[in-house]
Amino acid sequence: MAGQSRKWMVLVAVIWIQAFTGTNFDFSAYSSEMKKVLGISQVQLNYLAVASDMGKVFGWSSGLALMYFPLWMVLFMAAFMGLFGYGIQWLVICNVISLPYILVFFLCLLAGCSICWFNTVCFVLCIKNFPANRALALSLTVSYNGVSAALYALAGDAISASSSSLYLLLNSLVPLIVSIAALVPILRQPSVDPLSPVAVRSDSIMFLLLNVLAVLTGVYLLLFGSNTSDTSTSRLLLGGAIFLLVFPLCVPGVVYARRWFHHTVHSSFQLRGSGFILVDDDDLELHKRLVSRETSYNNLNGSSLSNDEVCEYRSSSQKLCNKEEDGARCCEKMMEKDQLVMLGEEHPAHVLVGRLDFWLYYIAYFCGGTIGLVYSNNLGQIAQSLGHSSNTTLLLTLYSSFSFFGRLLSAAPDYVRAKFYFARTGWLTIALLPTPVAFFLLAALSNSTEALRVGTALIGLSSGFIFAAAVSVTSELFGPNSVGVNHNILITNIPIGSLIYGVLAAVIYDGNVGRGLKLMFSDSVVCMGRDCYFLTFVWWGCLSVVGLVCSLLLFIRTKHAYDAFERNRALVEPQRNWSSNSIA
């Protein structure tokens, strides 16, 4: 039982790490000041944001480091990367030292790389300590990464609301302090023993409680995260936020009472499977055996399966059902070309890049979540150009909080699956809907403060869901054992998108300097007026529609595989429950 308590301590430590290491989300809070100090153009400022996102390209280096160094040492390597990357930038923005632009670029790259190393450490801790519920652990902890900007905004207001450079100092020091606080639980990790089905479900209820607490934390930061009335009030609110982050430490005490909780409350819920990855290992292997058995039996005994069932498991090279009309068959053949046979089939990298479904998924992410991230990087200049510089902290808090809610919502499909089942790729399509709506709203009503706030919230909600759901979708479509490599291939779209979308916005921004009100700060120029980002919002809105269409096509092409998987699981679920009750 003590070991069970320690694993929850590890989970809380991971929550702390994730909550304070999403430092790339507060770039817009100090970007205007950085541009002014360095005397650079909007395009050059965008390259600094790209450098931070390029850190994800080198995320593989953290896995290499784990092969030769213990986990706690890799954690502190990440902390010191951030300390030097952000710390030296703070010295530059405070005019303590002067560095050429290229060195500042590499400092941003180093800081971005530290974020990937922190994420790798957190993923390893979740997978190692929660093998049966690792999906729920990943879902919960990844969600807290989206709230970092709101926490730093609150901390900045509590110390000095007028200092934008303070964010860089906090980015450098706070992750190191949190790493020190998390060291004891990490060093005292328990040995992991196999859990019974009853214990797995009991842990699922514990995760449900933690998700409820996470929602309360998000609501608290949304309501009070941008309060700038006075320093003393901000300090009080910061204390409340820290309390909400420390409160999960009560979970180990709840573990001792889980038997009582299970018997009194658990029967009211029907939680099947994970809350983050639809395909767990046991269900996946069973699904593969059922598909193989049906295919073999059909080959030996003729067409014992119905035409509909046969079509669900055949690739595009096979003919469609004869009952389909000729006109519809042509369209369906195109839709079913190179179609997935089943969920969870392993795809090595060279096979992955040859799949049409992967590129639909890649474009959907590229034109969805990545645009949302670039929007957050430009929030400082967007607010400044529209004359809302004083609302930058509020907009940053809105984006961060709703990104946090979006990440939490990525686990909702499995909680409602017992009553309403829908393919994960379908949920992804729904999550992409707010993005084009938000950008077209911003293009039409950008001068409205309310439109700016609503648009920011919608983009944060949409991108947060996509960021959190991406790991599960990759695992389901292209295999859980290959998810590490395949997901790193997928997220190469982030630095590419950051470069393309950011340069697009910067070129339009600089091109409109002469048309609107022009302000000079050092050698940099600030564009003021609606035209500064109008065309950018239109372009981003059109591109997000492309992402939505690709996501819809992906859903249509994969729906049959999800439906077949769910039917197979429904067939064996009663048997599994009967076996569990017999053992109990």
Automatic annotation (TrEMBL):
Lipid bilayer topology: Multi-pass membrane protein
Membrane found in the keyword field: yes
UniProt KW Transcription regulation keyword: no
Protein's cellular compartments: Membrane
Pfam families assigned to the protein according to its UniProt record, in alphabetical order: NFD4_C, Nodulin-like
InterPro entries: MFS_trans_sf (IPR036259), NFD4_C (IPR056555), Nodulin-like (IPR010658)
Example of a GO cellular component annotation carried by this entry: membrane
Protein name: Putative transporter MCH1
Organism of derivation: Gossypium arboreum
